[in-house]
Amino acid sequence: MKRLVLAWAATAVAATGAAVGVLALLGTGLTGDSGHVLSQAEVRAALSTATQRATGPATALTPGTATPSPGKLIRSPGGTVIASCAGDLVTLRSWSPAQNHSVDTVEPGPAREAKVEFEPDEGEEVELKITCSSGRPVTRTGS
Predict the structure, then answer these.
(1) Counting Cβ atoms within 10 Å, is residue 103 exposed (0-12), middle (13-18) or buried (19+)?
(2) How far apart, in whole angstroms, are the C-alpha atoms of residue 119 and residue 24?
(3) Cβ partners under 8 Å of residue 6, min gap 6
(4) Are the beta carbons of 80 and 92 closer than 8 angstroms?
(5) Does the reported pTM lie above 0.85?
(6) Domain spans, the chain
(7) Do residues 86 and 68 make contact, with C-beta atoms less than 8 angstroms apart?
(8) How far apart are CA 25 and CA 30, in angstroms?
(9) Contact at 8 Å (CB) between 23 and 30?
(10) pLDDT digits over 20-53, tens only?
């Protein structure tokens, strides 16, 4: 019986040691926090890479089309939208309703005007109409 308990304890110690070693190799430690804080430059580089992957390479554009502008964050009481322009065509890259709102209608473009309607649980909906002016997204709100 004593040998069985010793064997069990040795196995438990070995398994725990292996788990700690694997976590150390992965860089997360026991708490799951690597302790590495990103600098502003690292954050910008990561966001730039993510944006490029999400929008695709510029070479995917057909000849004669304008390069899309960087996305512009548009806030409203109903939610937020990220829009960009390519020439005079606007494209909604993403949209997210505010708390207690839902997305009713989306016309993401690319078009001369893109539209998203955020509908609240109670009250009037918030409609955002977005166009391009001088290569930048411009917003009109309506209800």
Answers:
(1) middle
(2) 48
(3) none
(4) no
(5) no
(6) 1-35, 67-142
(7) yes
(8) 11
(9) yes
(10) 666 666 655 555 555 567 677 777 777 766 555 4
